[in-house]
Amino acid sequence: MEDTSNAPLKPRPAWETDFPHERVEATHVSRREFAKFLCLVSGGLCAGTAFVAVKDKLLPPHRIVGEHPVCRIGDVPPGGTHGFTLPGSHTPYILIHLESGEWRAFEQKCTHLACAVFYKPGTGKIECPCHNGWFDARTGEVLQGPPPRPLPQLAVILRGEDILVAELAASPA
Fold this sequence. Notes:
The protein is about 20% helix and about 30% strand. The protein is α+β, with helices and mostly antiparallel strands.
């Protein structure tokens, strides 16, 4: 049936005249375009992974050489902690004065995703709040959660009223 009315035709908007396109063509992605996108993203991920692997091999982790002063014994009460970094390193460490009177020092980054860990006074545990990971405050061993390995530990040396840390000597195999 034909439109026999003499109603005037509605004029096209100016943008349609300036930028003509079909709606179907605007939303269509060809297989070739999709494959190009996948190759680009895969190549970027591969390059990023290669960069991290090369960086890990070329820049070994910071080694602690000698003894380093941290604080004085009176600065940390039993159940308290003291955060510190060592000269030449950006790695955060945590010094813990356990309620039993023992001293421990650990890297303050979780071995799962490098979230900051915190000592929970009275529990004997170090918590990683990101994914509910728990470490033993005496040994650094994993108690629960996703961390794959224990916290790296430093040796704590008491010399008079001073507290120093050094690299923990590896136990003989």
